Amino acid sequence: MAHHLPDGATELRVLRRDDWDQWHGNLMRAFGGAEESAEVVALWRDELVDVDRALGVWDGDRCVGSAGAYAFRLTVPGGASVPVAGVTLVGVAATHRRRGVLTSMMRRQLDDVRSWGEPLAVLTASEPAIYGRFGYAQATFGISAEIDTGRVTLSVPDGTDAVRLRYERPADVLDVCEAVYARTVPARAGMLARQPGWERVGVLDPERDRDGASALQCVVAERDGEPTGYARFRVAVRWTDAGHDGQVVLQDLAALDPATEAALWRFLFGIDLTTSLKVRGRPVDEAWQFQVSDIRRCRLRLRDSLYVRLVEVGAALAARTYQAPVDVVFEVEDVFCPWNAGRWRLTGDTKGASCVRTTDAADLALSVRELGAVYLGGVSLAALAAAGRVRELRQGALAEASSAFGGLVAPWLPHGF
Ligand SMILES: CC(=O)SCCNC(=O)CCNC(=O)[C@H](O)C(C)(C)COP(=O)(O)OP(=O)(O)OC[C@H]1O[C@@H](n2cnc3c(N)ncnc32)[C@H](O)[C@@H]1OP(=O)(O)O
């Protein structure tokens, strides 16, 4: 596909090692210009960013556009691990904004992702309004909460007392925590298997993330001598005239079984001198919400998390399984990736699926964005139809497809990228 350069740009090219400082400088400026530590920059430059998958737009010798694409594997409903492009590090110089620089990078990137054979692209958005035009849709959500742990109690399941917790320095138990995390990845759609190096991001603990709270703390959970979970968090205790007013701020938590999960949450609820627990981006169906005595005093908020774009409709829909038998023909609209447009027949069940081109009459009409929204099971086709975004052309097809796309557990992305 031909690539048009936006006004004022002279070249769009794959990143070269020598371009790094300019490319990264452009990116940091686009995000407000905060300085990052040498350790953080080196981790991204030397280990995490794959320069062959990154793009830069140039105006003469100046970089004015940056975009990258990690090679991740995404857990999809049914548990398969599918190669995806993790779109990231997107920034356009304010001197060159709104002239199509981002559009030129998205065009090239989606063509590249297709040629790499990755059926999906995923991202977390700085602003939700940016990516819909390129075919991305919000597909997972996270819950944030500020729990009044001075008032709210937690009822834990049998077996919780058998879990032992011990404090460790986060960097000392990196391998233990990563091994636990890796075992949780296949259990929920939306989770990512990442290349080595990513586990260190969670313990970099930059001063600016602390917001007055402690350095990162870690407890590891064990059952019968085996590590079964961990929580990483900060504590801020403020002394007031009335006594103390401390808060626990959870960074991340992973558990291999319900008793471990409950033990970790009970621990976070109970740390002395604290009266609140702040959590961000947790699964919308996580167990603690059904164990608390007072959900209103948990002050829940919902936020969009992972955005999904089907790059190859057929391969993407065939890569997951379906909760109920399904046999429907979609009429798909896709202006930005026209190779997806047209009719596709999806047949599948809990064991597997196929999705192939067809000339049969369509049952449901939608755009590629609606398929992205429902792909991981976190948004229903019925809800999108009620919003006027899916049209039912054969009676019954909506109910059939809607129940098939749903899942037993809510999809979830544990961290941004
Ligand atoms: C996955 C990630 O990395 S998310 C991070 C994204 N980056 C940032 O937020 C950093 C700060 N912002 C930026 O660098 C830039 O403003 C970008 C990357 C968001 C947009 O880059 P631009 O080159 O200005 O976008 P471009 O000119 O291609 O815009 C294409 C269209 O999207 C629209 N658009 C672009 N940015 C936004 C936005 N933030 N909100 C709403 N609409 C937007 C434009 O108005 C334009 O619409 P039109 O075609 O109807 O005229």
TrEMBL record:
Q: Which residues bind acetyl-CoA?
A: 90-92, 98-103, 126-127
Pfam families per record? Acetyltransf_17, Acetyltransf_9, SCP2_2
**What keywords would UniProt list here?**
Acyltransferase, Transferase
- State the Gene3D superfamilies in the record: 3.40.630.30, SCP2 sterol-binding domain
Q: Which residues form the active site?
A: 131, 417
User: Where in this chain does the record put each N-acetyltransferase domain?
Assistant: 10-170
Its BP terms in the Gene Ontology are: aminoglycoside antibiotic catabolic process
Q: Which GO terms describe its molecular function?
A: aminoglycoside N-acetyltransferase activity
- Oligomeric and partner information: Homohexamer; trimer of dimers.
The protein in question is named GNAT family N-acetyltransferase
SUPFAM superfamilies, per this entry? Acyl-CoA N-acyltransferases (Nat), SCP-like
UniProt similarity note: Belongs to the acetyltransferase Eis family.
